[in-house]
Design brief:
The chain is an all-alpha fold. It is built from five helices and no strands.
Length: about 190
């Protein structure tokens, strides 16, 4: 420790020991400062390293907490977005239905057939086509058998003599019709 200066009448007279003791005290203070600086420097690097480690740990904890909060917020936003999307989709479907209904009413007022009317007509046409095909198939079968029975070609009879009175009334037309019918029967 620093030595205390003694009050001494002899030292007042000489002044030399007092200046030596001040020098010694100053020297001790300087050395104490250097020791403190050295100790602070050694302890400071250790303290700095400890603070860096604490900072790294704190940064990791903060980063993981931030990532967790970010993930949670992202999940919430995703669910909110999907809810909004489904609600919007439902609204668009309603709007589309209303639009189609109004267009159908307007077309009905104008007399245009609806999609149901067209489907019904298509079904009726298909049924009629089937009926026609059945009828033509049934008529074609007897003709084929009738043609097979005829072995010799039919000979047309000579036209009868037309009287002038019959000619005026359209007898040639009647005769032509009769001949056409006979030819059709023969065929």
């Amino acid at each position: 420790m620093v030595k205390k200066l003694q009050k001494n009448s002899a030292s007042k007279k000489t002044g030399a020991p007092l200046s030596g003791s001040v020098k010694d005290s100053a020297q001790q203070i300087w050395q104490a400062g250097l020791g403190a600086f050295n100790k602070a420097q050694a302890e400071g690097s250790k303290a700095f390293e400890a603070l860096v480690k604490e900072g790294v740990n704190l940064q990791r904890k903060t980063q993981s907490a931030a990532e967790e909060k970010l993930s949670e917020a992202s999940h919430k936003m995703s669910s909110i977005a999907s809810d909004i999307s489904s609600k919007a989709s439902g609204q668009w479907d309603k709007l589309e239905g209303i639009f189609e209904e109004r267009v159908a009413k307007a077309l009905n007022k104008l007399g245009a057939p609806s999609a149901q009317d067209i489907r019904a007509l298509t079904a009726r046409i298909d049924a009629l086509n089937e009926s026609v095909q059945k009828l033509t198939a049934n008529k074609a079968a007897p003709k084929a058998t009738a043609k097979a029975r005829v072995t010799a070609p039919a000979v047309a009879k000579p036209a009868s003599r037309v009287t002038p009175k019959a000619a005026r009334k359209g007898a040639p037309q009647a005769a032509t019709k009769a001949a056409t019918k006979k030819a059709a029967k023969a065929a």
